[in-house]
Amino acid sequence: GAALAGSAIVTGPVAADTMAPIEHLGSFYVTANLAEGEDRATPTSAEIIDVTDDGTTAVYTDGVAGRVGFVDISDPTAPAPLGAIEVGDPTSAGIVGDYLLVSNNTSEDFVNPSGELLVFDLASREVLATIPLSGQPDAVAIAPSGRYAAIAIENERDEDLDDGLIPQAPGGTLDIVDLAGEPAAWTVRSADLTGLADIAPDDPEPEFVDINGLDQAVVTLQENNHIAVVDLASGDVISHFSAGTVDLEGIDLTEEELGPQGNGLIEFVESRAGIRREPDAVKWIDDDSFATANEGDYEDADGEEGGSRGFTIFNVDGTVEYDSGTEFEYRLASAGHYPEGRSANKGSEPEGLVVGTIGEIPYLFVASERGNLVAAYDISAEEPRLAALLPTGIGPEGLVVTDDGV
């Protein structure tokens, strides 16, 4: 099996506690989807990815070039380009049946956020519907039931205004799309996420969303260091809680030049207390628990940055079932992938994650954006066990595991 991470099928494994059926099958480079005659130096990216139900086609957002790209993965050892379509400013994508849903940012500026959901026919790539959203969209999730799509409307802050401190109006919401009938008939409603967090309650900034088998969406409010669970049928918040803080000992907080000339050292001898988790990606493990990648993204008025350098498994009631502490960071260092240049703030900087089953074993894949590596954990037991360390291309973010584990 293999997991997809950004623009490439992840490589590996490097080292692990247990043997896992995870190995590198192939890689795809986004420049292969540039049009004939287009400059090969054109900036491109692959951020969020999804795969068709039959597992033969991958779709990714390329926000840098303003496109959505398609890749033939019917032979995962030799992914082939299928071209790209111009969108504008795509932020996320998801596939439901024969439809591709792409969130597109159309904001004029930070105080006038706007967006739309573009619904494409997968076969023809024609736009079937353009659905206005309540603001600037970030992540898109599709319910396993096929009844709903949920879109995190971040209405992100201007980091150059007032040192990036929140609150900055307007606050974000969770848009819920009812997927009944043909796309032209789909309707949108918003779930109110204000008044929940202790940090800037009037300015929630939803970052990522995922949906479980009960049609419940879990939403991370990253800068607010908060998590909410929303019932999609009613649009009501059914639980919410702070993502909490951690105390970390044995971490590297000093950035040094590496290599023969720099004489830099990675030294896990320092500590920080009360670090806000500030989760980015979130994924349900089952209907009662979910995992978060605790990237961090906010520096408060006291100059304290969030990001706890690992991942956490929460129960839906807010109870912490597991926290990786320094383990994730140490694993990266053991594989030679620790980003020393990020030591002073976010360290290993886990951003993306996904849950999937290979064989009969459930795995949690956690991506280090700055470390260019994905760690695969066997989560079949009470405590996650490392199964593989998978080096990737630069900056892995969106990940997918297909139904057949490839």
What does this structure look like?
The chain has two helices and 29 strands. It is mostly beta strands and 406 residues long. The strands form eight sheets. It has a four-stranded antiparallel beta sheet, with no helix packed on it. A four-stranded antiparallel beta sheet has the order 7-8-9-10, with no helix packed on it. The protein is globular and about 60 Å long. The N terminus is likely disordered.
Question: Which helices and strands occur, and which strands form pairs?
Answer:
Elements: E1 4-5, E2 8-9, E3 49-51, E4 57-62, E5 67-72, E6 80-86, E7 90-96, E8 99-105, E9 115-121, E10 127-133, E11 137-142, E12 148-153, E13 173-178, E14 187-191, E15 206-211, E16 216-221, E17 226-231, E18 236-242, E19 245-251, H1 259-262, E20 270-276, E21 282-284, E22 289-293, E23 311-315, E24 320-323, H2 327-334, E25 350-358, E26 361-368, E27 373-378, E28 385-391, E29 399-400
Antiparallel strand pairs: 1-2, 1-29, 3-4, 4-5, 5-6, 7-8, 8-9, 9-10, 11-12, 12-13, 13-14, 15-16, 16-17, 17-18, 19-20, 21-22, 22-23, 23-24, 25-26, 26-27, 27-28
